[in-house]
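Note to self: keep these together.
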Amino acid sequence: MLVHDGLTPAMSALGAVLALAAVRPWGRRLPPWMVRLPLWFGAVLLLVRGVPGLVENLTTATGLTPYGLLGPPGAPAARPVRRSRRRDPAPTGRTSGPAVR
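Structure:
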């Protein structure tokens, strides 16, 4: 989590600098690929993440999918994964005394 908290502001600052490099005269000193490649990558990432979110918001707002694209709560996609059987016995809540079976 700590890495994520530091990475997000760093990527935002880099994006701001690259956006300025694309339109300011000092950006001409950089190789064109160094400016264009990250900008294209960011645009594709926003497209891949943004369009499905927009579609889900529109279908939910219009009532086509009232619970979102994954369906109502309790649908197979929303159920938690079942764990395998436990090897140790479940705790009984007792802290002292003989073991009860």
